[in-house]
Design a protein that fits this description.
It holds the Pfam family ABC_tran. The chain is α/β, with parallel strands linked by helices and 240 residues long. 35% of the residues lie in helices and 26% in strands. The strands form 2 sheets. The protein has a 6-stranded mixed β-sheet with strand order 6-7-8-3-9-10, sandwiched between helices. The longest helix has 16 residues. The structure holds adenosine-5'-triphosphate.
């Protein structure tokens, strides 16, 4: 895969109209690192990913990606920088086949020449997608659709992959398969930022994580430290 890149947010405020959802969020993801953002419903996790992928502009603070100041880069220029966002609802084209969805992911002039090589790489990463390549995406199971959405995001040759709740709505066994896939992707050296409510699972695949509560970073640390932290265990891991 293409080289990975680093991401850095400082004091980011963002929201919707008059409603503020993020209050001075700071975080960083180093090249090749996998980082999680966990927290309860409405904490601002999705909003954070939207800010990073340029869908929402911060009202204050700064974002840097691979040396580029994202606060001044126009939103339409962000995909070309290598930021791939897999949104919570996946947004596949249900009436297109798996392979056609992958083609959409490689639609930009820069990505088009790499279509065959990247498609074959995606099929190597998830053989199931190869077996299903002529199936309409909308007729697949939730887990298969999630894998297809991740595959499509990889088609642009990203330098960072943003995943919004990849386990949402999936059965436990399928959740395992999706996280295995994330593990393989990160083993290839791609930088990954993953938002999750499934704290126990995500802490098994990321190096570090941030706990977001009502739009603020309430805790951060290495995965093993957070998994052992009594307050985190009580709030998010059903422990004591
Ligand atoms: P969830 O896991 O439920 O998606 P989250 O941590 O991702 O939660 P966000 O979706 O980022 O949280 O929402 C943060 C806050 O912003 C919430 O109070 C939410 O109601 C509000 N919000 C989210 N999207 C919008 C929107 N399009 N317009 C107005 N308010 C929004």
């Amino acid at each position: 895969p293409a080289s990975s890149a680093s991401l850095e947010l400082n004091g980011v405020h963002a929201g919707y109209g008059d409603f503020a959802a993020l209050f001075g969020v700071g975080l960083h993801v180093d090249p090749g690192e996998a980082v999680g953002v966990v927290g309860p419903n409405g904490a601002g996790k999705t909003t954070l990913l939207r800010v990073i992928s340029g869908l929402i502009r911060p009202t204050a603070g700064s974002l840097r990606f691979d040396g580029h100041d994202l606060t001044t880069t126009p939103a339409h220029a962000l995909p070309a920088l290598g930021i791939a966002h897999v949104p919570e609802n996946r947004r596949l084209f249900p009436h297109l086949t798996v392979e056609e969805n992958l083609k959409v992911g490689a639609f930009s002039p820069a990505a088009r020449p790499h279509f065959i090589a990247r498609r074959d790489h995606v099929y190597e990463l998830f053989p199931k997608m190869k077996a299903r390549r002529h199936q309409l995406a909308g007729t697949m199971s939730g887990g298969e659709q999630q894998m297809c959405a991740i595959g499509r995001a990889l088609m642009c040759g990203p330098r960072i992959l943003l995943l919004d709740e990849p386990s949402a709505g999936l059965a436990p066994l399928v959740v395992q398969q999706v996280f295995d896939l994330v593990r393989r992707i990160r083993q290839e050296g791609l930088t990954v930022l993953i938002v999750e409510q499934n704290v126990a699972q995500v802490l098994r695949v990321v190096d570090r994580a941030y706990v977001l509560e009502t739009g603020r970073v309430a805790a951060e640390g290495r995965s093993a430290e957070l998994a052992a932290d009594p307050a985190i265990r009580r709030s998010y891991l059903g422990g004591h």
